[in-house]
Structure formats: C-alpha cells, structure tokens
C-alpha cells in the first residue's frame, strides 16, 4: 500500500483501563454496597496483586491450576472470563456475584481512557491516508470503546484474538490484520507495549515500535513518534 499502514495494540497502547480501586468502587456503588475506605483500598490492592482486572497489573503469581487457562486466555471469550474471574475469586469480596460484576465493568467503554495523544495520532494518520488496524489479545468486543470515545472512524480494521482463536505473538494474527488492510507487512508498523506479544509482528517483516505501559496521565505524548515512524515506513 502506497501510504503504508500502522497496527496498534489496544490496552496500554491506545487506551488505559481505570484503576482497580475505581473499578471496585464503581461496582460496589452500583449495588448500593459500601466498604470502609481502608478495607476498600486493601481489597483493591489484593485484587491488583492477584491480576484480577484485565488491562491492569499482571498477576504476581498465577496458581498452578490456572496456568493453562491463563496462558490461553485470549483465545476465546469463555477462557478470558474464566481466567480473570478465577484470579478475582482468590480475593474475598462482600458478595460472590461481584467477581463477575468486576469482569463486566472492565468491558464498559467508560472504564477506558484514551491516552492523551491517541485521538491526534489516529486522526493524523487517517488524514494522511495511512491504513490503521487494531490488533489485540482480548476476550471481548472492544469496538464500542472506540465508538464511545469517538475514535472508531479512524480505524479501518479490528483483529481480535478471541474472534480468530489465535493470540499474539502468533504471526497469523498480524498477517490477518495486514490482509484486512490490503497492506504489505514490509510497509507496516506495529505499535504496542508488550515486547513479547507485539514483537511477534517482526516475524512477518513489520517494523515494531514499543510504548511504555503507564497510566494515561504519565504518558501524555508517547504515541506521537509513531507519526514520523509511519512516514519512514511508507517512504
């Protein structure tokens, strides 16, 4: 493709999930439940250590009986929910149904915040005629998140692991994205925050650029270098 193409990861690259504390506070509030502040903070910390929030911190330790479902969690919606709710259940909550409620909350568009420069970078690429794809290891449909935040118009293709039964770093997922965009991998830039998963695009001949997985407020302009890198790709 003359104008080249750019593939983006979702979580930690274009969007950041709300904190575990905010997620827990929201879910409790929706059910009219209240925890003393100290207990709420302690519970949120325990959930974060367990790795119970998709898009949040990785588990400090994956129990042996969950290692296989954790390894393959992004292959299907069922495995994704099973993996994260199992980690969540390692933490005691006021009601058993809160584990699924926490999982459901993380799929809400309002739970996600675009990085400060995401709209600018996506709009600029779109204006230059650069094809844009989103390639994500995920167990649910993230398209509503992009629509909610007004960024869907800048994305030409979504390639989500659970819809294809393949997860990054498998090169087949990146190949599917390039095919969807009509793009040559050698003219394609992959942007992500996970060196292992997103680095799998290099096996196809894609250039790869990494950003830091930080809270949105601490990474105001981490995506802007992509504009220059995309120019070099199409040059």
TrEMBL record:
Keywords: Hydrolase. InterPro entries: HAD-like_sf (IPR036412), HAD-SF_hydro_IA (IPR006439), HAD_sf (IPR023214). One of its GO terms (molecular function) is hydrolase activity. The keyword Hydrolase applies. The keyword Hydrolase applies. Pfam families: Hydrolase. It comes from the Bacteria. NCBIfam families: HAD-SF-IA-v1 (TIGR01549), HAD-SF-IA-v3 (TIGR01509). This is Hydrolase. It comes from Streptomyces poonensis.
């Amino acid at each position: 493709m003359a104008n080249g193409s750019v593939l983006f990861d979702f979580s930690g690259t274009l969007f950041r999930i709300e904190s575990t504390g905010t997620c827990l506070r929201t879910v409790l509030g929706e059910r009219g439940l209240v925890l003393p502040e100290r207990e709420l903070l302690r519970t949120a910390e325990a959930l974060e250590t367990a790795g119970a929030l998709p898009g949040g911190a990785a588990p400090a330790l994956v129990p042996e009986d969950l290692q296989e479902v954790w390894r393959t969690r992004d292959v299907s919606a069922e495995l994704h929910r099973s993996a994260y709710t199992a980690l969540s259940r390692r933490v005691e909550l006021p009601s058993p149904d809160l584990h699924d409620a926490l999982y459901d909350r993380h799929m809400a568009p309002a739970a996600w915040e675009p990085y400060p420069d995401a709209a600018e970078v996506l709009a600029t690429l779109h204006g230059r005629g650069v094809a844009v794809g989103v390639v994500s290891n995920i167990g649910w449909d993230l398209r509503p998140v992009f629509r909610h935040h007004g960024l869907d118009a800048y994305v030409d293709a979504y390639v989500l692991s659970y819809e294809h039964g393949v997860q990054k770093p498998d090169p087949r997922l990146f190949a599917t994205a390039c095919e969807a965009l009509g793009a040559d991998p050698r003219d394609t830039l992959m942007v992500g925050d996970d060196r292992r998963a997103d680095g799998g695009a290099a096996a196809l001949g894609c250039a790869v650029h990494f950003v830091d997985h930080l809270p949105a407020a601490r990474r105001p302009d981490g995506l802007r270098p992509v504009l220059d890198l995309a120019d070099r790709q199409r040059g």
